[in-house]
Model the fold of this input.
Amino acid sequence: DGGITQSPKYLFRKEGQNVTLSCEQNLNHDAMYWYRQDPGQGLRLIYYSQIVNDFQKGDIAEGYSVSREKKESFPLTVTSAQKNPTAFYLCASSPRASGSNTGELFFGEGSRLTVL
Amino acid sequence: GQNIDQPTEMTATEGAIVQINCTYQTSGFNGLFWYQQHAGEAPTFLSYNVLDGLEEKGRFSSFLSRSKGYSYLLLKELQMKDSASYLCAVRAANKLSFGAGTTVTVRA
Done:
């Protein structure tokens, strides 16, 4: 089945540790995104990538890092510099918007990170 | 970034109609999306508008006015399973930015 797979679904880490969240897609989408969601808030964009080996900062990139070495993979590292890392992290991908293709985002199931 | 506003909460009765408004301010507008998100789950795509007017998909319709920076999502014949958060999202410069979401509660 085609889709986006995020892992792990739940993750607990001690304060000061780096953690990497995995995101893999087999939809052959060019673009991939990472969002963070906190209770009562909408999705906030952390990083996005339109093409392999290229990515841009979103609205809240500080304390995070990403890589895009392969089209299907876009891992997110939450570093110790992130002041409040406990959140629900969502990865998404989208095809290029053209013609009848809306370029909508397809989301993974999310990773819930709790820093103790 | 974009400034996207939508109401925090709405309550309606099963079988009724609810309209969720969304206003936005952005440059380089290139489409508006509505997503549904049940608690603890990923958002799922509902509708897309890039031109002015109404798009209808079954019980859900979405309207866009680009000159007013305004959209609404209309949910008809509400069912209990429609209780969820509804997210308005605006695309500009290859980025999709989301509003805070509107939590809709459907009561019997």
